[in-house]
Amino acid sequence: MNNSSWLKRVWHGILDMRMERKLLFIFVVVITIPLGFIGYISYSNYSRSIEETTIAYSTNLLENMMQRVDDYIEDMTRISSIPAYQDDIKHNLIRSNRYYEQQKRLEQHTDQTVPADFNQLLSIQRGIQSDIKFINNIKRGANSVYIFDKYGSGYFSAEAGGIRLNIEESYMYWMERAEQSGGEAVLFGTQKYTSSLKSTRYAFTVVRKIMDQTLRPIGLIAVDANIDVIEDQITRLDKLTMGSSVIIDGNGNVIYDSGRERLALSIAEDPIVRASEGAARGSFYHKVNGERQLHIFTTSPNTNWKVIISIPVHELMRDSIVTRNVTWIATFLTIGAALILSIIFSFTLTKPLRKMMRLMRTVQQGDFNVKFPVRNRDEIGQLGSQFNRMIVRIDELIQDIYQMEAKKKEAELHALQTQINPHFMYNTLEAIRMVAELNDDDKAADMLAVFGKLLRYSVGSLHQHTTLEREIQHVRDYISLLNYRYPGRFRLDISLPSELADYPMIRLLLQPIVENAVYHGLDDRKRQMVIGVKAWLDERRYLTVQIHDDGLGMHADKLARLNFSFRQVQQSDQEHGGIGLKNINERMMLHYGSDYGLQASAREGGGTVVRMLFPPETASSSQLQSLHHPAGRGGQ
Q: What residue ranges are annotated as transmembrane (predicted)?
């Protein structure tokens, strides 16, 4: 089915609705759908506005936070450059290098461990630690400052606590990375370590080589920054956005994580990190543990650190969901109130119309003693007044037409009976038969006797009726007469249950159908033509009589035209020389009603089948008895 046919069916279905349903349908189309559409568009625009505002606001917060982190790292970088301008620090480092160089040279010559000069070491250590305290006072918040000579001897201040226990291992790692820096500061991502207080800590570090006046390396400075300096800003950011954040370096290593579960780990293969690659800033949606989240990221141009904040959609849309719910509740309440008013209005408007429809059904059943109560002078009131006048006029016309139809049917029955009631022919044939017997011509006498029986059966009063058994006997006589003329050419098969033998019916219904079959269906190629007559009662106790033959049959188009003519109440064209199938059908409809009559069809293997439908026996008897009483048929 194409779209146009479907639309036509839908349109016709709407047009065929009851009036109150049409009003409700119009209400839904005109009010409900526009309100719902407006609510949806409003919610969509509001949600999109919230999303755009959140992205812009969060991006701004991220950039500001990263700017503060960059400033902090810049301060750490400047702190790492202080030894380059402090001759005292360089002097003490040179003293430390000389001391350990002398110790190493002495041990090589003596092959023994040389005792340490504690006084000299203590002087060097106090001098460098004093410089470290000076550095700590310049920038508070740095967790620890470490200064190493070129032999790896470390100096630090333990006043703040939290000194790395793996200081030598850290020095080797830092020195390896800073070796190729050429004196520039090197930024190390978050590292996990155990402090001297036996606690696990995390810090990121700025490392720089210390040069003397001739630009030769004389040591190394490392500035540790505890991640607490980032945590405070991230916590405020997460609180404002209702999300969670993570900071990673250019290699995907975690600098900071809101949950502290992935600190100092690599998450380069995480789908969120992969999705943010290739852009300095942006946003995208991604599901995390089955929950849809909005991810916003920005990258620091100085450190190449990237911060990604993940905001659950339900948190992002919390305000819009509240607005949506309030909007929908208000919309549904408005629609509900309007729907109730529309239902009341539609039923009030259509109640008089339904009353008029019930009165029309009553009139349709033949009762014209009805009247529509006119209470108002609107269109429905005027329609009711016209309805009342119409009923009165129709009742008068029906009485006139009823009388005319009764007279017409009486005349038609007289005319039909005249066609099949030739008295003079019967009397003449009876005289001829007697002469044939006197002359000893037995065959002619028998033929005349059979033909006389046929004519005698057709002679009777207009109001007489017969039985199914007599009708079938009339058919037997007709076939017998044909076999006198054409010996053995016709065979008659009768199937009549005994309980149907006395079924009452009008005269001369079966023989004309058999005559039609012989006249039109006789096949000269066959030696014998078989004609069957079968009667039975269906499940409704309706009588069906079937007459079939194995003759030439009838073309499909002719069958269709014949069956179409059977459905017409009146037929004016009578066939010459006989009653004809149309005449039989018309007589049955006149006597039994328009629901009864003939139906023709093709027979399997060749030939034609004609079925006759009769009412139940009780109804048939009452109808035959009431032929002279048309008023007893109601409003038909």
A: 23-43, 326-350
- Beta bridge partners, 607, equal none
**Alpha helix positions (H), 420-524:** 423-438, 442-458, 468-485, 510-521
Per DSSP, 499 falls in state G
Query: What's the pLDDT at 388?
Result: 83
149 and 209 Cβ atoms separated by less than 8 Å: no
Q: Where are the domains of the chain?
A: 461-633
Q: What confidence tens digit (pLDDT) does each residue in 209-229 have?
A: 888 888 888 888 888 888 877
Of the given ranges (6-10, 507-511, 583-587), which has the lowest mean pLDDT? Answer: 6-10
Give the phi and the psi of residue 555 in degrees, each rounded to 5. Answer: -65, 150
Radius of gyration of the chain (CA): 58
Report CA-CA distances (Å) from 362 to 8, 117, 217, 370, 422: 33, 131, 118, 8, 47
SS3 31: helix
Give the amino acid at 18: R
Cα atoms in the 13 Å half-sphere on the side-chain side of 62: 28
pLDDT one-digit tens code per residue, 286-330:
888 888 888 888 998 888 888 988 888 777 677 667 776 777 788
Answer whether 246's CB lies under 8 Å from 305's CB: no
Q: Are 82 and 135 contacting, i.e. CB atoms less than 8 angstroms apart?
A: yes
Report the distance separating Cα 472 and Cα 509, nearest Å: 10
Cα gap 445→435, rounded to integer Å = 8
d(CA 218, CA 180): 15
Convert the pLDDT of each residue in 243-276 to its tens digit.
888 898 888 888 888 888 888 888 888 888 888 8
Tokens coding 430: 């009876």
d(CA 214, CA 211): 7
Q: Which residue is associated with the tokens 């290739």?
A: 278
- Which tokens in the block code for residue 453? 């029986």
Sign of the alpha-carbon dihedral angle for 29, 34, 39, 44:
positive
DSSP single-letter state for residue 579:
-
Token pair for residue 447? Answer: 């033929």
What sign results for the dihedral spanned by CA atoms 81, 86, 92, 93? Answer: positive
Q: What is the mean pLDDT of the chain?
A: 78
Determine the Cα–Cα distance for residues 50 and 40; give it in Å rounded to an integer.
15
115 DSSP assignment = P
DSSP result, 527-578: S-EEEEEEEEE-TTS-EEEEEEE-SS---HHHHHHHHHHHT-S----PPTTS
The arrangement of strands across the sheet holding 217-226 comes to 154-156, 142-149, 217-226, 200-211, 186-194
Q: Contact at 8 Å (CB) between 592 and 620?
A: yes
- Asked if CATH classification 3.90.1150.10 holds for the domain at 461-633, the reply, yes or no, is no
